[in-house]
User: Which sequence fits this backbone?
C-alpha cells in the first residue's frame, strides 16, 4: 500500500500517470485506472512564497562610469599592493614571541610577588590576633558571669 501511495503522489507531482504495470507487492494495470482518475492541475501561483519585485521602470542595464572617488581608491589600493610587494610583510601571529602572545610572563617577578603576598598575609594574621584577644577575654568573662548568675539563681530557687 505504501508503494502505491508513493507512486500516485509522484504521478500527481509530475502531472501525468504513466501507463503500464507496477511490479512488487501489488500488480495493477494502470490502463483502466488512468482513464477514470482526474488529476487536478496546480497553478504555480499557489506556491509563490515571496511576491515579485515591483517594476522599477528600467528596461536595460546602464554601464557604470568610474568616478573621481573610485579612481582615488583604485590608486590607493595599487599603492598598498606595491608597498606590500616590496617589503613582503609577515603576519603578526607568525613573528610574535610566546610571552607577548599569551600576556606578561609572571615568572620574572615571582619572588617579589611571593614576598609581598607572604608579608601581607602575616600582617593580616597579626591584626586578626590583635582583635581576637579582647573578644576571647570578653567571651570568657561573659561565661563566668553567666555561670555565677546560674549558681545564684539555683540557690534562690532551691536547686
Assistant:
Amino acid at each position: 500500500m505504501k508503494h502505491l501511495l508513493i507512486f500516485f503522489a509522484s504521478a500527481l507531482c509530475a502531472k501525468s500517470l504513466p501507463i503500464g504495470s507496477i511490479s512488487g507487492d501489488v500488480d495493477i494495470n494502470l490502463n483502466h485506472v488512468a482513464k477514470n482518475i482526474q488529476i487536478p492541475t496546480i497553478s504555480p501561483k499557489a506556491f509563490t512564497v515571496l511576491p515579485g519585485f515591483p517594476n522599477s521602470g528600467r528596461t536595460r542595464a546602464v554601464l557604470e562610469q568610474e568616478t573621481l572617488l573610485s579612481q582615488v581608491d583604485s590608486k590607493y589600493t595599487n599603492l598598498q599592493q606595491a608597498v606590500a610587494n616590496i617589503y613582503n610583510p609577515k603576519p603578526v601571529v607568525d613573528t610574535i614571541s610566546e610571552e607577548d602572545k599569551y600576556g606578561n610572563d609572571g615568572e620574572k617577578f615571582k619572588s617579589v610577588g611571593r614576598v609581598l603576598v607572604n608579608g601581607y598575609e602575616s600582617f593580616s594574621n597579626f591584626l586578626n590576633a590583635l582583635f581576637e584577644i579582647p573578644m576571647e577575654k570578653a567571651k570568657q568573662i561573659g561565661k563566668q558571669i553567666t555561670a555565677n548568675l546560674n549558681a545564684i539563681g539555683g540557690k534562690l530557687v532551691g536547686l
